[in-house]
Design goal:
It is a single chain. This protein is an alpha/beta fold and 257 residues long. The protein folds into 2 domains: 141 residues, Rossmann fold (3-Layer(aba) Sandwich); 108 residues, Dihydrodipicolinate Reductase, domain 2 (2-Layer Sandwich), CATH 3.30.360. 36% of the residues lie in helices and 23% in strands. The strands form 2 sheets. It has a 6-stranded parallel beta sheet, sandwiched between helices. It has a 5-stranded mixed beta sheet with strand order 7-8-6-9-10. Helix 4 links the parallel strand 4 and strand 5. The radius of gyration is 19 Å and the shape is elongated.
């Protein structure tokens, strides 16, 4: 029997792509819920449910690329339904992530900053580079650029890269993160991981991790040209997740990395 995939935010641009990729994977699109306050139509033939609870009850797994502001409520609703959850919303707070982790005690859940296979390979390399290149000699800086409509900064993927470098160096990102430098900031702190966020035009996503020493610069860059790469990865994660034990999984788990 085909996996029943529900889509939170199905009326949005990503929602339409997720519906297309669900069909391409020969899964069953159970339907979706639209974004709050949006009058945009859903994909042709898709069932629109009155609320998330109804969608979760009719689905084996729900894919959610909506908004960080709904993360805690969504976590409670989907966990209560016992439905698997693929979460790709960015900009989650510590409290939001705590609610996600709590939900993962009851349901299988994939939470990732990015569902692109290429980005996840970059994240793995970022951790290895962080472990190999000493913080006392190599300054780590992350530069990202996205479309002008993006509301959070730095991006979830940029933060994921920073966390990977920090993990490689055996530190917590929150302890070494420097973001949005402005004015007389003083000299750069040894071991800091810096972030710069650029916004403009309709850039899908560009991320560069730069390690800079007094003798060399090493840059690791990923560029996305089509949002479909995220939808393809999310559907892949949804199909992988069904039948798993409750737990908090990553896209690297899905890819077997």
């Amino acid at each position: 029997m085909p996996t029943r995939i529900g889509i939170a935010g199905i009326t949005g641009r990503m929602g339409h792509l997720l519906a297309e990729e669900t069909h391409a994977a020969e899964a069953d699109l159970s339907g979706g819920v639209g974004r709050a306050g949006s009058n945009r139509p859903g994909p042709a033939g898709a069932t629109l449910f009155p609320d998330l609870a109804a969608l979760a009850a009719a689905s084996d797994v729900v894919i959610d690329f909506t908004n960080a502001a709904t993360a805690q409520a969504t976590a409670a609703t989907i966990a209560a339904a016992g439905t698997a959850w693929v979460l790709g919303s960015s900009g989650l707070s510590d409290a939001d992530e705590a609610a996600v982790a709590e939900a993962a005690k009851r349901i299988p859940l994939v939470y990732a900053s990015n569902f692109s296979a290429g980005v996840n390979l970059v994240l793995a390399l970022s951790e290895r580079m962080g472990a190999t290149l000493p913080a006392e000699q190599y300054d780590a800086e992350i530069v990202e650029m996205h479309h002008r409509q993006k509301v959070d900064a730095p991006s979830g993927t940029a933060i994921g890269m920073g966390r990977a470098v920090a993990k490689g160096r055996g530190v917590a990102l929150n302890d070494v993160m420097e973001s949005g430098r402005h004015g007389h900031t003083g000299a750069r702190k040894t071991g800091a991981i810096g972030f710069a966020a650029l916004r403009g035009g309709q850039v899908v996503g560009e991320h560069t991790l730069l390690f800079a020493s007094g003798t060399e610069h090493i840059a690791l860059t990923h560029r996305a040209f089509d949002r479909r790469v995220y939808a393809t990865g999310a559907v892949r994660a949804a199909l992988w997740l069904v039948g798993r034990k409750p737990g908090l999984y990553s896209m690297m788990d899905v890819l077997g990395m």
